[in-house]
Design a protein that fits this description.
The chain is built from 11 helices and 2 strands; from the N terminus they run H-H-H-E-E-H-H-H-H-H-H-H-H. It is mainly α and about 240 residues long. A hairpin with a 3-residue loop joins strand 1 and strand 2. It is elongated and about 65 Å long.
């Protein structure tokens, strides 16, 4: 049994949560002005430092806008204001490598199905071009990581779902930054690059043929296989 230490949440994080909940519930709307720093200190019964930390965090998240000489206002929430703090959280959080792959399975399996239903000719061509680069990399004994990323990027674009597209690419970009050494280990086995190329090729063919169920199954099999190999690589790194 592995037990983790209990951590007390910082005061400013609790303030951020409360204000975030008020926005989610519609009690605070875009354009609404927050109370002054002094009023917030009195209402929350905390220090000015905690209020300032909370305001800074909310501004970083894109939830509020601080206007010099005017006050602090709730911003219009858009895709960027949702995805940017997610990317930041993923970058600073530790021990989330395999959780990232779990999230990818949830998103990308569905994305493969949507792409099979919605992909247009130019998007199918984009997937094929990424595969061609992957094939050339294979012949030159290169890892082909960039082509791999571009292939999944093309599938995400072919879903025609802007939110899914941004979420998938946030996860993918974060994984490229945090799993560089593990991914290198993944490609060390001489048969792995060719195996991964074939898996991508079969996914491409299913999407091209507009076979959503097959595209989903092949994507799930692909991600599960990579996840298992990655788990082994991470375990070896930790030894």
């Amino acid at each position: 049994m592995i037990l983790k230490p209990i951590r007390t949440r910082k005061i400013y994080e609790q303030i951020v949560d409360q204000i975030g909940q008020l926005v989610a519930q519609g009690q605070l709307k875009p354009g609404d002005r927050l109370p002054s720093e002094r009023e917030l200190v009195e209402r929350f019964q905390v220090s000015r430092a905690s209020i300032r930390e909370a305001i800074s965090a909310l501004e970083l998240m894109g939830l509020i806008e601080v206007r010099s000489g005017e006050g602090t206002y709730i911003r219009q929430v858009n895709i960027e204001s949702v995805v940017t703090p997610l990317a930041w959280m993923l970058f600073i959080e530790k021990d989330t490598d395999l959780e990232l792959y779990e999230a990818r399975k949830i998103l990308e399996v569905q994305a493969a199905g949507l792409a099979a239903e919605r992909a247009e000719e130019n998007e199918i061509c984009e997937m094929f071009e990424a595969l061609e680069v992957m094939r050339r990399d294979l012949e030159l004994y290169h890892l082909g990581e960039e082509a791999d990323h571009n292939f999944h990027y093309a599938i995400a674009r072919a879903t025609h779902n802007k939110i899914l597209f941004r979420l998938m690419n946030t996860l993918s970009d974060t994984m490229r930054k945090t799993l560089k050494s593990s991914r290198s280990k993944l490609y060390e086995h001489k048969d792995t690059p060719e195996k991964l190329y074939r898996e991508h090729l079969f996914i491409y063919e299913a999407i091209k043929n507009h076979d959503a169920k097959k595209a989903q199954k092949l994507m799930l099999d692909h991600l599960v296989g990579v996840e298992n190999q990655l788990a082994k690589a991470i375990t070896l790194e930790g030894k």
